[in-house]
């Protein structure tokens, strides 16, 4: 079963970003990501939201 997202934060770090995700169960995950990785993530999110919003789907 997937965890439910409670919150997330993105902070600049030297050479990249720190992505912090917290679940409703209180579990925290931290990832270091590059600009390119966050850019790909943002593009994927945008594509999914656009597809969900498209009335032809």
From TrEMBL:
Domain of life: Bacteria
Name this polypeptide is given: Uncharacterized protein
Classification lineage: Bacteria, Pseudomonadati, Pseudomonadota, Alphaproteobacteria, Sphingomonadales
